[in-house]
Design goal:
Elements: E1 2-5, H1 18-29, H2 33-38, E2 44-48, H3 54-63, H4 65-68, H5 77-97, E3 104-111, H6 112-118, E4 125-126, H7 132-137, E5 145-152, E6 158-166, H8 177-183, H9 193-209, E7 216-217, E8 221-225, E9 230-238, E10 245-251, H10 258-264, H11 275-286, E11 291-297, E12 308-316, E13 320-329, E14 333-343, E15 351-361, E16 370-379, E17 387-399, E18 404-417, E19 422-437, E20 440-448, E21 451-456, E22 470-482, E23 488-502, E24 514-526, E25 570-582, E26 586-598, E27 609-620, E28 623-632, E29 643-648
Parallel strand pairs: 2-5, 6-9, 10-12
Antiparallel strand pairs: 1-8, 3-4, 3-5, 7-9, 8-9, 11-12, 13-14, 13-29, 14-15, 15-16, 16-17, 17-18, 18-19, 19-20, 19-21, 20-22, 21-22, 22-23, 23-24, 24-25, 25-26, 26-27, 27-28, 28-29
């Protein structure tokens, strides 16, 4: 029987005879220094003979200094001998880490050129041979030494008796069902060091999750039983008391109010100590984007009231940032602008974003340059931590062929995250605008109360990241009133559904490489006829959001003998895409879109327009760069012959 302590998952050290180790040490220590310095460097190559167990071979290869260091600078024969001597214990540890406690390691050294001439492996010199350094010195310069490692694993040892003993002064250890399940160490399983140590770590995690903040499971002691090929284990377990959270301390806050962090916390003093909930609270605070780093720690002792105080340390991120925005399509032309963001405006994670865009740079659906200037203010945790307040003030000028618009908008709304998949928003909007259409100019003052609901089951947090599975649903209803030149009331209703299917489910590709994507959109306006609704509130189709291959607002009724769209009160559109990743950073897309617009409040009527095309993708760390080309399959009079779209992220 041998007694030892499991110290690390890469292997365990079994005590062996000290005579050989002493001999090796003396051999290295008493070689004259001049001889060591005078010895020519010795090149060598190492071969590890397979054991038949790929995982074990990988562990042996990773543990061997002979293998990992052979491509470095050549070493003296005495240093190479020391490297061989060290490998015995390292390789034995690798065997024992996989449960082979009766295994042996053989290392032989031969002359590569002599072996090649004889056409045989040859007996070679044993790595333990005291004369090995002198033999290595005799190898002619320029010739390599062949080092061959052979491992004989022997039988796998299995777990024998497992004992849980209390720490000094503690009561006897009794595990309940959940603790026993977490521990999982049972007699009969292979005695691998990794699983033996992992069992103790898992038990300690389970105990701390139950509130035993000072719980500790020590490194197990092990007794080897060669006669039964078993390993007996003893774990020392300290539970300690069940502990509640104490006071929180916040360090490193400069511009952020501590009261905001306290309100945001998902844990509170007086609650049960649980490391998983503490970590989730840390991640939640980090997700606000206010900090470049968030850490939490506590002492190994309790406060005088028996609670466990927590210390949070913060490193605040940059307060200001500048970004650029751009895009191009042949119908809407180019758009370019800059965004300036002020984070943590009032110390409660508020964000102010100012954006200035120039639009209509040469588009076939545009008659001239326009602009879009807006200021967004977002206040998180408005009323509750699941709600955000947003406000926007915006100035727009659009020189579209369908109409020319100059408008000033103000909107405010609340977005509520119902759960991980659902969010809803509601608010109010006012708009003062002037619109010219077909040489007639009208002013409108519009009041609206938009209500939206969104579902996202794709598991993708970043909207620019392509989805590969799941469903997205968005629906909105916007009761509106136009209060100028006669009051009209109307309600705009729209819904969009997108779904994604990974062809890995058919065994046709690797995960995420080949994806089918489908999108359907339907809209309707009730309460007023087409010409009683301001032109910008009507429904249109055409462009990247609905039917590619047709210019923006190019699908639906048009004024006679013109390319000016009328708009309608009903719209529907659908898209189908096949997305294929190519190599690591490239991709290709084929798609077909169809849609129609009518003015009779009934969907699925009107003239159906169909477009088709293909595109290329270049995948960057922030999302794919998109380039699509589409053509109309049934082009209307005065319609464009093709369209080009460039942007960031997938179309849907």
């Amino acid at each position: 029987m041998r007694h030892f302590r499991l110290a690390r998952p890469v292997g365990v050290r079994v005590r062996r005879s000290a005579g050989y180790a002493t001999l090796c040490a003396l051999l290295t220590a008493f070689v004259p220094q001049a001889a060591v310095q005078a010895a020519d460097p010795q090149d060598y190559v190492t071969t590890l003979r397979p054991t038949g167990n790929a995982d074990l071979d990988a562990a042996l290869r990773a543990s061997s200094d002979l293998i990992s260091l052979q491509k470095t600078q050549a070493v003296s024969p005495f240093a190479l001998t020391g490297r061989i001597h060290n490998d015995y214990s390292r390789l034995i540890s690798a065997l024992e880490s996989y449960g082979y406690y009766a295994g042996t390691i053989t290392i032989t050294v031969s002359d590569v050129d002599v072996k090649a001439a004889k056409g045989t492996e040859g007996a070679g010199h044993d790595g333990r041979d005291p004369d090995l350094p002198e033999w290595l010195q005799a190898i002619p310069a320029g010739r390599k030494a062949q080092v061959t490692i052979s491992a004989t694993p022997g039988s796998v040892f299995r777990i024998g008796v497992v004992t849980l003993q209390p720490d000094k002064g503690d009561p006897p250890v009794h595990l309940d069902a959940e603790e026993q399940k977490a521990f999982g160490m049972k007699p009969g399983v292979p005695a691998q060091a990794e699983s033996v140590l992992a069992a103790g770590a898992a038990l300690q995690v389970a105990l701390t999750e139950e509130g035993y903040a000072l719980a500790h499971v020590g490194t197990p002691q092990a007794w080897l039983r060669p006669d039964t090929h078993t390993l007996d284990l003893t774990y020392t377990v300290h539970r300690g008391p069940v502990v509640n959270l104490g006071a929180f301390d916040f360090a490193g806050l400069q511009r952020t109010h501590p009261a905001y962090i306290a309100r945001r916390m998902t844990i509170a003093p007086g609650e049960l100590y649980q490391p998983s909930r503490i970590e989730r609270a840390r991640q939640d605070i980090a997700s606000t984007g206010l900090f470049s780093d968030v850490q939490v720690n506590h002492d190994e002792t309790l406060a005088t009231d028996g609670t466990m105080p927590l210390g949070f340390s913060f490193r605040e991120g940059k307060r200001h940032s500048v970004g650029a925005e751009g895009g191009y399509s042949t119908d809407l032309g180019g758009r370019a602008g800059v965004t300036w963001t002020h984070n943590n405006l009032f110390g409660n994670a508020e964000r102010l974003r100012l954006t200035a865009l120039i639009t209509g740079l040469g588009g076939s659906a545009e008659q001239g340059l326009g602009y879009d200037f807006y200021a967004d203010l977002m206040k998180p945790d408005f009323g509750s931590r699941a709600q955000n307040l947003s406000a926007r003030l915006e100035g727009i000028k659009q020189e579209l062929y369908s109409y020319r618009q100059t408008a000033l908008l103000a909107r405010v709304g609340v977005v509520r995250h119902v759960n991980r998949l659902w969010n809803v928003s509601f608010g109010g909007q006012i708009e003062q605008e002037q619109i010219q259409q077909m040489r007639a100019t009208n002013s409108y003052f519009i009041v609206a109360l938009p209500l939206t609901a969104n579902y996202d089951g794709t598991g993708v947090d970043n909207p620019i990241t392509p989805a590969t599975h799941g469903v997205r649903v968005g629906a909105s209803i916007t009761p509106s009133a136009s209060l100028t030149d006669g009051t009209s009331f109307f309600a705009i209703m729209q819904a969009t559904v997108s779904t994604y299917f990974d062809l890995k489910h058919f065994g046709l590709s690797r995960p995420g490489r080949s994806v089918l994507a489908l999108r359907g959109t339907i809209g309707n306006v009730e309460g007023a006829s087409t010409f009683a609704i301001p032109p910008d509130q009507r429904l249109y189709a055409g462009g990247s959001a609905t039917v590619r291959g047709f210019r923006y607002q190019g699908v639906g009724p048009q004024f006679a003998n013109t390319r000016y769209a009328v708009g309608g009160t009903s719209m529907d559109a659908g898209s189908f895409e096949y997305r294929q990743r190519i190599l690591q950073k490239f991709g290709a897309v084929g798609f077909i879109d169809a849609g129609q617009v009518t003015g009779n409040h009934t969907p699925f009527e009107g003239t159906l327009r169909v477009g088709a095309g293909a595109g290329a993708r270049y995948y960057t760390p922030i999302g794919p760069v998109r380039l699509d080309v589409a053509v109309p399959l049934n082009r209307p009079a005065r319609g464009d012959k093709w369209e080009l779209y460039v942007g960031l992220g997938e179309t849907f």
